[in-house]
Amino acid sequence: MKVALYDKGGGRFIKAAAAAARGILGETNVITFDPDENRDVVCLGEYSHVVCHLKSDREQPSWPLLIEGDLSRVKVILRVSSQGAGGMTDSAAAPYRLTSLGTWIFHLLEPSGANCVEWERIFSALLKWDSEDNALSDELTAIFQPRPEWVLALRLLCEAWECVNVKGGDPLHDIEVHAPGSPSEWLDPFAEIKGEPGPTSEEVAAQLGDRKGLAIELFASIENGDRQKIATAVHRFLNMAVDQSSEY
Question: Residue 169, by phi and psi: left (phi above 0), alpha (psi -120 to 50) or beta?
Fold first, then answer.
């Protein structure tokens, strides 16, 4: 894994990203390009992984010219945008491949990479993942394609279940609480179209990033119908959701 980091100027990610990459991959596997060099983006085609902050027009260093060029050696491009909070948010789509078996394109969708620890998480996930796969690893999904609204939805279902089944259904300021019971009552709220059946438990869990394991445990206990196991799984999921809710 050979990484090139290119900042056209104005990006605040480069120092932390470079330090993290060198810590994981070694000095000889990481190169940074100074914005003052104004190098043609063709130079990035020599590296397996590219992290870049480029111009959106066709003036060098140009994002359009990069993705139109020879990327036969490039497995992953991670684009850092200057749009949005902290100069790290991008409004682009979820991860995709330029061609059916070609280069993967990732965009930072939320202010991330502000410190070395966050970049270490990114490079570690990329290093362990086989970019020939047509699916992201759980770690990459958690970073680049999470469904935070689904995490919150499952948390609300867990809170309702706990309120009714553990706390005795105590009313919340005279609000009647309805708890999910059957597997379909847990899954139907995740349906993309109201009134349609919800996705499978596996499909929901796959969209929860690093909560996937806890979600699988929860759905398995629901299928089994063991109230004690459901209570344990609900408690575990709620504790993790609370601890990490600041991410969203």
Answer: left
Q: How many CA atoms lie within 13 A of 179 on its CB side?
A: 19
pTM for this entry: 0.65
Beta bridge partners of 96: 105
| 68 found inside a domain | yes
Handedness of CA 206, 210, 213, 217 (dihedral sign): negative
What gap in Å lies between CA 233 and CA 212, rounded to an integer?
12
Per residue in 131-155, pLDDT tens?
A: 999 888 878 887 787 788 898 999 9
Give domain status of residue 139, yes or no. no
- Which helix H or strand E contains 4, and what residues bound it? strand 3-7
8 with 130, same domain? yes
Residues 187 and 218 in one domain: yes
pLDDT, tens digit, 9 for 90 and up, residues 182-221: 999 999 999 988 888 889 998 898 788 768 889 999 999 9
Instruction: Please tell me the distance from the alpha carbon of residue 63 to that of residue 11, in angstroms, as a whole number.
Output: 15
CATH of the domain at 74: 3.40.50
Q: Which domain holds residue 183?
A: 148-247
Residue for token pair 């990484």: 3
What is the C-alpha separation between 39 and 26, in angstroms, rounded? Answer: 24
Over the stretch 66-114, which tens digit does the pLDDT of each residue have?
999 999 999 999 988 755 434 333 434 578 898 888 999 998 754 445 5
